[in-house]
Design brief:
alpha+beta; 6-stranded mixed sheet; 5-stranded mixed sheet
Length: 503
């Protein structure tokens, strides 16, 4: 599948769009003041050990303490001085091995408050949560991922041909130093021994520098920063499928050319410097797609639509037929809508970078064969997603439960903030509801306080309702408590705000 990268760089923000089949498929945003920290390596200090959660909080110099689960603590730690060595952590989207680290000891036996250790950030701080960290250090390169203290060689599952897997395993196993490990990335497929050797030596040199720095550093502090978003995306995403890279920054263009010349010299001619007056994202029509990715409702071509609701715990996606009435029968209409929704959902999950637990409410289908079709279509649509997904079968209620690996904030959470007017609820109390709340408050105030005049300050639209449809309620209170109520409209008031003063 031919694709291209469009990169927009400014002093305050970098945006990278992966375009597949003429449509934006993935969007990466990094702001100068909010630079991502996944992959960074810190020397941290344990500030709290929680036996009940089998976890610890570690100060790595950020605003919030980072979270370290017991499975992410190197369990053969006593063999290594000062807890400064790590093991395998789960690598980026397309690289993994079958080896797992078993928890042999409780967290309280491994860590104590005040202890210093080397850790790597595996998940960005998300919402109110601090960063997730691991002591299983891994250093990703273009072709391989280096695991300094794990005696293991793994091959990406996306390399399917057994003969190629064995060839790569033999090369890496022969070139690696005793006691260290590597995961062979998908990008290594078809590469020569020299390509792999250069990557392995480069990563070993970086690890030697990290070890040297941590000996002299005082916790908490940053030991090694991962690449910026431009270099990281070029390293992880650019393959033979990417036939063009367009960037509007001369400095970053030169850096990419240098990187490509070293690791992918055949692609050097595919890099273009954009120097037109029109902003690059406008030229490619990407701003419209980004705005669409922030909307709650997404229309389907047939006239149906999906609703995407993100909460703290999960993301709910609801499928509706909308204006689509079909041509034959109801079951056929529902099936077509669900199948169309599957493609859009898979696309939106990638574009918005939605992760965690996801519940999809498809329109109920009576036939089991149709449910199987929708499930198979969803599995197929998610194959192009580089983030790991896990899908459960469609339930009798038409629900699909799935998870998608989350390592950074979604586009919505990154680009938006809770509405200050509704406080993130997505709604406010109706004007009629506010009027009835006012009547109850007036009843309480008039009952307890002496006085003949009441000044009621409210939002202008609530004032209009009190003068018109709800006027009778005020008159009844005035008659019952023998007090005159004067309504004053206050333009600066929130719709739910009101003030009662009796004199």
């Amino acid at each position: 599948m031919a694709s291209e990268l469009v990169i927009n760089v400014t002093a305050h923000e970098t945006r990278i769009s992966l375009i597949e089949k003429g449509t934006i498929a993935e969007l990466y945003i990094e702001r100068t003041r909010e630079k991502g920290i996944v992959g960074n390596i810190y020397k941290g200090r344990v500030v709290r050990v929680l036996p009940g959660m089998q976890a610890a909080f570690v100060d790595i110099g950020l605003e919030k303490a980072a979270f370290l689960y017991v499975a992410d603590v190197f369990d053969a730690i006593e063999e290594y001085e000062n807890l400064m060595d790590g093991g395998k952590k789960e690598d980026h989207h397309d690289d993994s091995s079958d080896q797992e680290f078993k928890v042999l000891h409780p967290i309280e036996d491994l860590l104590q408050e005040g202890q210093e250790l080397l850790v790597q950030v595996s998940k960005e701080p998300i919402g109110t949560k601090g960063a997730r960290i691991t002591s299983h250090i891994s250093l990703p390169g273009r072709h391989v991922v280096y695991m300094p203290t794990v005696d293991h060689v793994g091959i990406s599952r996306r390399i399917e041909e057994e003969e190629e897997r064995e060839r790569l395993r033999e090369i890496v196993d022969r070139l690696r130093q005793p006691g260290c490990g590597f995961i062979v990335r998908t990008a290594s497929e078809g590469k020569t021994e020299e390509d792999l050797r250069a990557d392995m030596e480069y990563l070993a040199k970086i690890w030697a520098e990290i070890v040297s720095k941590k000996e002299k550093a005082t916790a908490p502090c940053l030991i090694h920063a991962d690449l910026d978003v431009v270099q990281k995306v070029v390293r992880d995403i650019v393959t033979d499928d990417v036939n063009r890279i367009v960037i509007d920054s001369k400095a970053d263009h030169d850096r990419i050319v240098q990187f490509i010349s070293t690791f992918m010299p055949k692609m050097k001619s595919s890099i273009e410097l954009y120097d037109e007056e029109e902003p690059i994202f406008d030229q490619y029509g990407l701003e419209v797609e980004i705005s669409r990715a922030l909307g709650r409702k997404v229309w389907l071509k047939s006239g149906g639509y999906i609703i995407i609701e993100q909460t703290e715990a999960l993301t709910a996606i609801d499928v509706n037929t909308g204006r689509f009435v079909g041509k034959h029968n109801l079951e056929d209409t529902i099936l077509k809508t669900n199948l169309e929704a599957v493609k859009e959902i898979a696309y939106q999950l990638r574009l918005r970078n939605i992760g965690g637990i996801i519940i999809i409410d498809f329109i109920d289908m009576e036939k089991e064969v149709n449910r199987e079709k929708v499930y198979a279509a969803l599995e197929d649509a998610l194959k192009s997603d580089k983030s790991k997904t896990n899908i459960l079968k469609i339930s009798e209620l038409g629900l699909v439960e799935m998870t998608r690996k989350r390592v950074r904030e979604s586009i919505g959470r990154m680009m938006c903030e809770p509405c200050p007017y509704c406080e993130g609820r997505g709604y406010v109390k109706s004007k009629t509801t506010i009027c009835h709340e006012i009547f109850r408050e007036l009843r309480r105030e008039m009952l307890d306080i002496r006085g003949t005049k009441v000044l009621l300050s409210v939002h202008p639209q609530v004032a209009d309702l009190l003068y018109d449809e709800e006027r009778r309620g005020l008159e009844e209170l005035e008659k019952k408590f023998k007090k005159r109520v004067t309504v004053r409209a206050k333009p600066g008031f929130h719709q739910e705000q009101f003030e009662v003063v009796i004199s």
